[in-house]
Amino acid sequence: MRVQRYTAGVIAGVTTLTVLGGCAAQQIQALEPKIELRNAAQQLADAKQTGVTVKLTGNPADLVAAAGKEADAATVAQLFNSSITMTTDKGGDGEADDKSSLAVTVDGVTGTEIRFVDGSLFLKAPVNELAAKFGATPADVKELSGGAPGLDALTAGQWISVDTKKLPGAAAATAKPDAEQQKMLAELTTSATNLLEGADVVRDSADDKHLIVTSSTAKGYAEAKRLATAVEPSLASEFPAAPKKDQPVVIDLWLDGGKFTAAEVDVLQFVEGAQGRVAARLEFTDGAAIDAPAGATPVDLSGLLKSGAAMPYLGSTRPSN
């Protein structure tokens, strides 16, 4: 009898441990992708050099069909053929030597780039090629110089440089990375963390580098409103009403070696009855050193600005009014 009780106790103990072990394994399996995401986010935040390209993927016809009469097929096709690549180079400790670059492909035309290096803005663009694509005449291109010495170099597709320290106060603030941009980056990180905390994260069984994050429109709306209000408080009263129907929102993330490589959000999941997939896609790279381009033509815009002439939008988080 004693042996039977002992045997029964052992069996019960083993069974209990097996069940508990299975539950623990499931919890670890569910937690592990979130830990990987947090580590990747921290790695991205700590990286000295980063790069990210933003573009649309999928079938342009699906987006036109989803948007209905409001969509222009030619404009949508141009969007799918365009992209923006943002690169940062933090240099050493502190923000004094931070550098950044913004490269733009416009409907397949490459070569437009803005760099911020050591208090100067550098700009080049294939002006004539872009002008021809969008129907501008040579006379229109000539007017781009606006009478500022050196801007002819820009229309010729060469690098120009602007010393932002010489610009009037408001113009200088919009022509270089500033505390406002740093704040936006910090708030974006906070938003990503908040959405992750309340989301389900699973690993794709067919691709162990692919994580599928499921949140909801209600959570996404709340976080988008928080982000917009944090960056620009005046937007609080202008923010659109919350969606009437709460539904799942899926975000696809890819990681390799502990680093983000890509992220996608299918924009058609927000359109009831839409077919196909059109994704806003981010592609991450390790970035590279950003240097001042050699041979840039200096351009002094201070005179034009003081006289009241309009200054081209040169890369702040938003144009000044």
Task: Please tell me about this protein's structure.
This is Lipoprotein. It comes from Paractinoplanes pyxinae. With 321 residues, the chain is of the alpha+beta class. It folds into two domains: 149 residues, no CATH class; 105 residues, no CATH class. Helices cover 39% and strands 26% of the residues. It has ten helices and twelve strands. It has a twelve-stranded mixed sheet with strand order 7-8-9-10-11-1-2-3-4-5-6-12. Strand 3 and strand 4 form a beta hairpin. Helix 8 runs antiparallel to helix 9. The protein starts with a helix and ends in a 15-residue tail after the last helix. The N terminus and C terminus are likely disordered.
- Evaluate the radius of gyration: 26 Å
Distance between the termini: 90 Å
Low-confidence stretches: 1-30, 307-321
Biggest sheet strand order reads: 7-8-9-10-11-1-2-3-4-5-6-12
Query: How many domains is the backbone divided into?
Result: 2
**Kindly state the mean pLDDT as a whole number?**
77
**Total beta-strand segments:** 12
Order of helices and strands: HEHHEEEEHHHEHHEEHEEEEH
How helix-rich are the residues, as a percent range?
A: 25-40%
Beta content comes to: 25-35%
Largest sheet, strands/sense/barrel: 12 strands, mixed
Structural category is alpha+beta
**Multimeric state of these chains?**
single chain
**In DSSP terms, counting alpha (H) and pi (I) runs of 4 or more, how many helices?**
10
Bulk shape: globular
